[in-house]
Specification:
Layout: E1 2-5, E2 9-14, E3 17-22, E4 29-35, E5 38-45, E6 53-56, E7 59-60, H1 68-80, E8 89-95, E9 106-113, E10 128-133, H2 137-142, H3 149-163
Parallel strand pairs: 4-9
Antiparallel strand pairs: 1-2, 2-3, 4-5, 4-7, 5-6, 5-10, 8-9
């Protein structure tokens, strides 16, 4: 039984449980953008986090009929201004953000971007953008600068696959 619904998700009651289901009709995705030897992070101020600044990778809901790869490309373009061909994306794996209450399984991609690649003006969703050199990732993680689950998952998969020479 649906107990709440909006354009992005619905809450379904299943016995004593409430489950959040994305209902956009497409597959969501997140992208780890690697610009040269640095990760491009978005500075976000989300209402659900009390408008505190969080560092996150581009991500979003899929549009109706959209596959995860196309969603990843669109979200990267909207949020960073980089318009890359689909061939520039590598699937890292998937993450299930909260298996206790959410049904979603989100694809995580890597996008390698040459530092000289031109880009358009991104949308205004992010408060800012920050390049984090790969050499500084461990320090940023140890200091708790990155807490977003999509970003942490993508970094873990990137490192695991890089060890196997991605």
């Amino acid at each position: 039984m649906i107990v709440y619904e909006n354009p992005w998700f619905r809450v379904v009651k299943d016995g004593p449980f409430h489950i959040v289901e994305e209902n956009t009709g497409g597959e969501g995705a997140a992208v780890l953008p690697l610009v040269g030897d640095a990760i491009l992070l978005l500075e976000m101020k989300r209402p659900s986090q009390g408008h505190q600044l969080t560092l996150e990778i581009p991500r979003g809901f899929g549009e109706a009929g959209e596959d995860a790869l196309t969603c990843a490309r669109r979200e990267l373009k909207e949020e960073t201004g980089y318009d890359l061909p689909l061939s520039a994306f590598t699937l890292l794996g998937h993450v299930r953000p909260n298996t206790g209450i959410m049904s979603s399984r989100i694809a995580l991609f890597l996008a390698r971007i040459d530092a000289a690649t031109p880009h358009a003006e991104p949308d205004k969703e992010a408060a800012g953008r920050r390049l984090l050199p790969l050499a500084d990732v461990d320090t940023a993680l140890a200091e708790g600068q990155i807490e977003d689950g999509f970003t942490l998952s993508a970094l873990a998969l990137f490192r695991a696959k890089a060890a196997g020479s991605l």
